[in-house]
Amino acid sequence: MIMEPTLDGMALETREELSEEQEFLLKKCENIIRIGLSTFVEVGLALKEIQDQRLYRRTDKTFEDYLQRSMGLSRPYAYNLIESAKLMRELRTSVEVDKASLPKNEAQARELIRIEPSRRVEVWKKVVDLAGDKPFTAKLIREVARSERSPEGEKPSAMESGLALGKVTRLRELFANTRVAEDALQLIEKLEHLARSIQTR
Fold first, then answer.
1. Of 50, 76, 85, 117, which one has the fewest beta carbons inside 10 Å?
2. Structural contact between residues 101 and 130, judged by C-beta atoms closer than 8 angstroms
3. Would you report the helix, strand and coil content of the chain in percent, each value rounded to 5?
4. For residue 3, what are the β-bridge partners?
5. Are residues 138 and 69 both part of a single domain?
6. What angle do CA 36, 42, 47 make, to 5 degrees?
7. 146-192 pLDDT, tens per residue?
8. Which of helix, strand or coil describes residue 154?
């Protein structure tokens, strides 16, 4: 392992060496991320490349550590960017989608990545039709997605249901010994009931 100085004078322990080609690719991807944050597709694809090629391994053990330390990005936001970029690639290659009317930002793409992959193109076409000459928004995408659900509503995945119950359980633990415990516990009981009703759909 090599100790490398950082801008603040602290030594940084590196994990693995990268080839010259990988080092170049890492720098290229990092520049795209730093300079092109407004172009979410390029940023998402650059993050995916760093993840897939494990270009973070010179300085970090995991991709998540790299996101936090080097890029200052949270894991959820980075993965939203990656998924949004993949979605944009999917929409661009679809023969059914007008290439002039694609999502304009990450917020719009984020609403689409929440939709079942097999339905994304269909939902996007409806969004474009509904918007007409007006600009489409993340809110419009969300509303179209909701209206497309069956009358019973879409069932959440097992992971989503488990996460809901897990978060409620954690809230219960946090509020158990506080002055506002009674109000909080009533709210938590309502949330638990809601999470369970989602699971049984």
1. 76
2. no
3. 65, 5, 30
4. 13
5. no
6. 100
7. 887 644 444 444 444 455 555 555 555 555 555 555 566 666 667 76
8. coil
In this structure, which amino acid lies at residue 138?
A
pLDDT of residue 20: 92
- The whole-number pLDDT of residue 19 equals 93
- The identity of residue 5, as a single letter, is P
What does each C-alpha distance from 142 to 77, 112, 146, 163 come to in angstroms?
18, 8, 6, 21
Neighbouring C-beta atoms of residue 155, cutoff 10 Å: 14
pLDDT, the chain, mean: 77
Looking at the fold, whether 138 and 175 belong to one and the same domain comes out as: no
Q: Are 80 and 113 in contact (CB under 8 A)?
A: yes
Helix or strand (DSSP H, E) at 155: none
C-alpha–C-alpha distance, residues 13 and 5, integer Å = 9
Task: Let me know if residue 152 belongs to a domain.
Answer: no
Q: Tell me, yes or no, whether 143 and 165 share the same domain.
A: no
Q: Which residues contact 103 (CB under 8 A, 6 or more apart)?
A: 84, 87, 88, 91, 109, 112, 124, 136, 141
Assign residue 151 a region: left if phi > 0, alpha if psi is -120 to 50, beta otherwise? alpha
Give the tens place of pLDDT for each residue, 49-63.
999 999 999 999 999
On whether the CB atoms of residues 121 and 96 are closer than 8 A, the answer is yes
Domain of 140 in residue numbering reads as 94-147
The structure's pTM equals 0.57
